[in-house]
Amino acid sequence: xxxxxxxxxxxxxxxxxALLAATAVGAGSLLxxxxxxAADTPADPWISQxxxxxxRFTVPDSVVRSQVGSAPxxxxxxxxxxxxxxxxQLNLGLSGGSWTATIGPLEPGQxxxxxxxxxxxxxxxxxxxxxxxxxxxxxxxxxxxxxVGGASAAWQAxxxxxxxxxxxxxxxxxxxxxxxxxVWTPPSYDANRADEYPVLYLxxxxxxxxxxWTELGxxxxxxxxxxxxxxxxxxxxxxxxxxxxxxxxxxxDGLLPAAREEFHISDDAADQAIxxxxxxxxxxxxxxxxxxxxxSKVGSFSGNLVSSISAAKAxxxxxxxxxxxxxxxxxxxxxxxxxxALTAKLDAAGVEYEFDGVNPSYGGIWETWRESLHDFASRxxxxxxxxxxxxxxxxxxxxxxxxxxxxxxxxxxxxxxxxTFETGTEFSAAKNVTIxxxxxxxxxxxxxxxxxxxxxxxxxxxxxxxxxxxxxxxVDRVDHKDAGNPTVVTSESKWSTFFxxxxxxxxxxxxxxxxxxxxxxxxxxxxxxxxxxxxxxYVWTPPGYxxxxxxxxxxxxxxxxxxxxxxxxxxxGxxxxxxxxxxxxxxxxxxxxxxANGNGVDYPKEILQxxxxxxxxxxxxxxxxxxxxxxxxSMGSGHALSTLYAHPGEFAYIGAFSAxxxxxxxxxxxxxxxxxxxxAVYTGDIQDFTYQxxxxxxxxxxxxxxxxxxxxxxxxxxxxxxxxxxxIDFAPKLFAADTASGIPVTAAIAEGENGVLAMTxxxxxxxxxxxxxxxxxxxxxxxxxxxxxxxxxxxxxxxAGLGGWTxxxxxxxxxxxxxxxxxxxxxxxPKVLTPRAGLAAGDALATxxxxxxxxxxxxxxxxxxxxxxFGSAKLGAGLQLEVPVDTQPGSYSxxxxxxxxxxx
Length: 904
Description:
Layout (H helix, E strand, L loop, with lengths): L13 E7 L7 H5 L14 E2 L6 E6 H8 L5 E6 L8 E8 L2 E6 L5 E10 L6 E4 L15 E5 L15 E9 L4 E9 L13 E5 L8 H4 L3 H11 L6 E5 L6 H16 L9 E6 L1 H12 L6 E5 L9 H10 L2 E6 L7 H14 L4 E5 L7 H12 L34 E2 L5 E4 L10 E5 L8 E4 L1 E3 L2 E6 L5 E9 L2 E3 L15 E5 L4 H5 L10 E9 L2 E11 L13 E5 L8 H4 L3 H11 L6 E4 L7 H16 L9 E6 L1 H12 L6 E5 L11 H7 L2 E5 L8 H14 L4 E2 L9 H11 L26 E5 L12 E2 L3 E7 L3 E5 L3 H4 L4 E7 L2 E3 L2 E3 L4 E7 L6 E3 L17 E6 L6 E14 L9 E9 L2
């Protein structure tokens, strides 16, 4: 355990580091009592799990040729992998006789997919599935499925003691043929029970088969879980075929009598419910109007009602129906505006109904309808106290519309993160148009098909997670820039960018701050080893940068990767926004950041002979190596590390993102350790093609005895999502007080001398011991208290100026052996223990399980204005760690760093 405080008449920075030793889960046995996550690898030899949450598709080329009839120009696995589980395409690459691709981490739930090959020339699309596996979706023979287990999808997982699924066959007078339905009976179903069972009838949408309720909708598992939990009345559920022009006769004269004959179910209207999806929902609503009282409960999942309702009919409906409940997805649901009209029609007629609210996460897809079935079934045939909307759902506030085609720049991003793209008319003759973007899980890349609208193509999807995105149009397999988007990426001429506001680390740090809080971004020219012509660099200076300040600014050199150039950290990486947000939060020191061109030069010579001297000539930056930092991504990490090895001590802080470049035999280890305050290494997960290089680098650093800090792998591939998160974590570590020695520092202030700004931390013994876990349904919750933090500010007005101070903290991931719990699972509620004017506690930070970013990024503990800064202040915080109930057992530990910053 160690603490470190510092005192500086210039308002230096302090950092306290505390180890949450083995207390994230209390004793290891506490978490060990929880069940480990079940394996969810699909029974398909083409699919494997190379790591938790990651799925790899490996398709033999010989099978592809046999299915397609020739060698395809491209192959993709197409499934509901995209944002909001939108249907999307993951490109597979051909290598060693197989087509392969990896995606993930996938969130828990049901996935359906097919393989789609493109034939060159005709651009014909051929779909197929693994012919060696069972066909799980009757009406969609090219589909296959798999289920990803996890706490958030436990309500639709398999249950050993569930009900039974039967097939009911009956004669259909409307179809003139024999038809079938699926029937679910509850656990311990008793055909001789004294009381007949209530019954729920379900109807499918147009284009669906009745069997999709179980094949894609997981209706049997949803009902099993409700039944086993005692969360619904024991009932029989009949999934019939509503594909009929006379659904009234099909249901009332065909399906109902057949079900009553075969199963022990009631024909009392009070015991009958009906619901459906899309067309099936409209059929259920129409039966409510034509035959009020036939079904006492009616559910509409993304439905519509065309027929009118008179006052007399409304009275009959209200008298004969005790529950009408409507469900709809977000604005990507094609029935969204229909539901606006539906609710208005019911309101105008005086029909009593309930509305579950707009599902914010999904459109008109199975993810929405599964949740609808789960809610609706739990409300049937017993009293329910809460008729309101499901948690997190929102009101239906008027019809949704998009701008007229061709009228505004794209994409359009609404207040809920739903994004709409539109092409120009130049692709009117195209056969296939998709959008390629970094919107797959963890920032991987997916192509999502667009739809033809007149002579343009459009795509609406979402909501997208908060953060920045880059994309291009792919038109008949040829890349094109979105001409309607004015953004520019110099190194990738076909790319465009956009930002979506929202929660999460990238949403919090890559958005624009208010104009008055932004630093300046300028272009600096400098001579180069590459030739006679000068090169350029972007330079970020903090708000209030003073070129004449007595104390020069620390300087941070940030390098791009291979195939990129000096503009990428600004144009794609949004480094300026990341730095602006950090500075506004008080979590980084005022510094100058230089993003130069590292292509085609001997970089260690280039930076020391050209980039550093040019920066020192143009900006008020320190020439002290202790005040210099150097970091880069991929190739840029090689530049940073090679400079460290060749010139140890020239840069006290080194960052390597997606790193490689092991130390050469000639590296002076003692000089490297003596001259380097921080060597931080970051990587993506195994999807990052430099992952193994990074692991080799870490092994080499350890073997050579080079002191370093290795961040837990960031989920994602070799991509900007990973590098942005690395920069977000790395920047606050720069130019901090050295905590390595663990020697407490105190300051005695003699009367009449200038004061100091200092921080101390109460004794915290062996660490912060969190409570024993509480199982609160979908998570385990641990609580604890931050040791008391005291800030003393005795600076004079001349020293402090018009500023105050800020205390911030950030946690490292919790680790146990090879297992990791990310720091966004640790949240807090800051407290000011000595309240006074001008002294304010920071915002509470929710954990990842509640949609927050927790302490994975720096959070403010408290801040003081000019009015409240002087004197002593005592601060605290309640800590809360929340993890899924199926978290791998272990004794986890983390480190929490607290920093004190003066505010200008």
